[in-house]
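Write out the 3D structure for:
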Amino acid sequence: MKPLVDPSIVAQADGIVRVDKADPQLRYAFLPIVFPSSHASNLMQLRNGDLLCVWFSGSWEGESGVAIVLSRLDHGSKRWSKPIIIDHHDGQSYQNPMLFEAPDGVLHLYHTTQPSNGGENQARVLEVLSHDGGHTWSQPRQLLERAGAFTRHPMVVLPDGRWLLPLTVMTSEGIGSGADTNYSVMDISADHGSTWTECAVPHSEALVQPTLVEVVPHKWISLFRDRRSMWMYRSESSDGCKWSEPTKIALPNNNASTQMIRLKDGHLALVFDNTSKTFGEPASQARKPLSIAISTDNGETWSAVRDIETGRIGYGSLESKPHIPGREEYSYPSVFQTRDGRIHVSFTFRRQTIKDVSFPESWVAAGSTQGQYRPSR
């Protein structure tokens, strides 16, 4: 059996931002390793220009003591900081953190927690706060009463000032049997997170982790992960609460998370694993290649796609690999456009660490993909 853990990656996990020698437009960094396994990062830039990255790290997803950690790229710096532990609790497994800087400047971090011996349908959403830009944090409080609620994508502020939190409701213990009954909701708060109203996404069973953007005034679109490992689905709303029934689009999904943002020029950027269970060898559960797609027509079509990470040759799907760091997986992306115009993408790199890459938007159209969806040129 081939070794899974690559010592050269461990050696490079020093947070230093490097320029790719073969592609000078591309910069990358492997974030410092805290615990053996890392997953599910999210990026956010503070008003002072610092770039923050949060993720969960521990022995393995779902096990006791898995923590929420944060690394910082100070404005003007070329090195990500050693991560700090924001939140952890023995007997609990923390997952899927995301950051939100409220209009009053308070930094909110939301994440899920579940008993380490329990299923995802027992998960709760916790909130911790920072009043100093993420250097120190409050004790956690439970945000929602609902069991099975799962975070993944950042909070959105609606035009009228209300907060919208996209959520998955987990009805099953995990992603195996019964996962096709998981569904999505949008929770909205008119009092800065004190109370929440649930907005349904009709007929969203098996469609989870909604990522959403406002494409034009009073038109929101959301894309969904497909538990059936086939396709992405799309829903629309005029107010953030009343959503259309999701419909299938041309982009594949492999039952892994995606993320979408609106760029400064109005284009959409979507990062996803460009594969499904019907594509490639082996087909089932592969989490590569990780690709970025650009849409210039509000997500109706995706005219440019380029691979960010294609993976190692000769390493197969997740099914044949044990639950240990080093397995072949490039997944759970976060995408953010910083004030200098560069697009940053952080993602799970073989469950060993988090990798951050950045590039200009023009970089996407200058490349191609080995994945399933290939736009006509």
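The mean pLDDT is 93.
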